[in-house]
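Practice problem. Given the sequence and the SMILES for adenosine-5'-diphosphate, write out the predicted structure.
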Amino acid sequence: MEQTETASDVEKLLSGLGRFPEAWARPFLIVVSGLPGTGKSYFCHCLAQRLAAVILESDHLRRTLFLAPGYSSAESARLFRASHLLIERLLRQGLPVIFDATNLSQHYREKLYRIAERFGVKLVLVRVEAPPELVYQRLKERQTDPGTNSEADWSVYQRMKPQLEQIRRRHYAVDTSQDITPVIDKVIREVSR
Ligand SMILES: Nc1ncnc2c1ncn2[C@@H]1O[C@H](COP(=O)(O)OP(=O)(O)O)[C@@H](O)[C@H]1O
Ligand SMILES: [Mg+2]
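Answer key:
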């Protein structure tokens, strides 16, 4: 039951994606992580303007699968199962991927590390942060932004905060209350090497 559900989830997610960029001989996987409102999607959007990759934004994927997202752990587990299979599918086709999700738990990140290893692709990790006062303000303003895919508000931020587990691997950290360009430059340099 779970397997057929996942397979049809993956197909649904795949058909909701836009045009694909060109395939690479050795694609890469960029994994962004951080609490809601820290600026992950903004960062990924800026990055993708300079680097043709498929952005998998978990909030967009969540809306594709769930009409009324509740951000429960069962919902997230199903979403991540399908997302991980989708990432594998894209990498197999040589498509570089930017995975824009909270990725707070070590458990879920480990799965991504293993995917990158299995496919022999470069893995770049980015931890996105911002001061809580700024996040509070941003989330309040985002609620009226028709362009956002996220329904996560300050209460979701607070609920998720204790779930944040430190990244134990080498990664880039970006504080989005500052200029994000230097980190974008570094990430591009790393995947282009
Ligand atoms: N570096 C930044 N400079 C200016 N505004 C930003 C920046 N990062 C995020 N924002 C704004 O803050 C809000 C939350 O950012 P978003 O990228 O949606 O966060 P997340 O994807 O982590 O939940 C959005 O309205 C976004 O436009
Ligand atoms: Mg987002």
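Check your answer against the key. Helices lie at 2-15, 40-50, 58-65, 73-92, 106-119, 132-142, 154-160, 181-192.
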